[in-house]
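Hey, I was hoping to borrow your eyes for a little while. For a while now I've been wondering how a particular protein folds. The fold is given in discrete form, as structure tokens running alongside the sequence. Could you read through the record and tell me how the tokens relate to the sequence? Take your time with it, there's no hurry, and the full record follows here:
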Amino acid sequence: MHPILIQFFGFSIHSYGVMLAIGFMVGISLAAREAVRTGVDPDKILNLTFWILLSSILGSRLFHCMVFYPQYIQDPLRILKLWEGGLVFYGGFLGAVLVSALYAKIHKLNFWEVGDLLMPSVILGLVFGRIGCLLAGCCYGHVCDPDFALAITFRNPIGLGIKNEPLYPTQIISAVNALVIFLTVWLYRKKKRFHGEVLAICLILYSITRSLIEFLRDDPRGFLELGRVSLSESQVVSIGLLAFALYILLWIRPGQTVMPKPAKAQKRNG
């Protein structure tokens, strides 16, 4: 596709980084808007998004480097070459969760409420991230039948995907999947019954669909062998997040008051 958007005087602006930046900006703007709507201090949320930005980039890169550590031990400077791909969403998400939990405790915020507020932004940002994957050629799918109507072929010699072969459009599937999840929780968020419900719904929907999409992907990933079953590292994390979502529904929900419906504003005379 188009891994480099602009190149001048030997300096390149990579499409993947641009789409990540757009995703973060859109997500931050949406989170600030939701903070105002829900009555959470928007300044605290904006400060939190700064730490989420740092922790998610660090976490996503560390996750990848841990899985493929032999490559980076031989050439440690490759750790800094983010334009080569190697940012794992789940690594960034886990890093963001840890930072958010710590931040919520320090600033006396309800972690589950903050999770509900931020998750739609995270999922929407992922839509832009997957478009960046498509442009860069990473996160590509298995070779498929040339007659498959949705097959995509990467021809750019500097792209990260398999070249000149019809592939399953896993980046497009992932982007559409994230968009559908976002629209689902965005429409539901005002009807939530307890803090943590939107977070749980996002985790359930994403962990299941991500695990299914993994079967179509063919980019280098780590795997865990369980007898005759081979699971990618993302499928393993998906199982953990699905269990976490069930924990929210079964143990967190009973301890929280049902969310009251906002009272309608009364008209004043005169």
The helical segments are 15-38, 42-67, 69-74, 89-106, 111-136, 170-188, 197-214, 233-252. Residues 263-270 have pLDDT under 50 and may be disordered. The chain is about 60% helix and 5% strand.
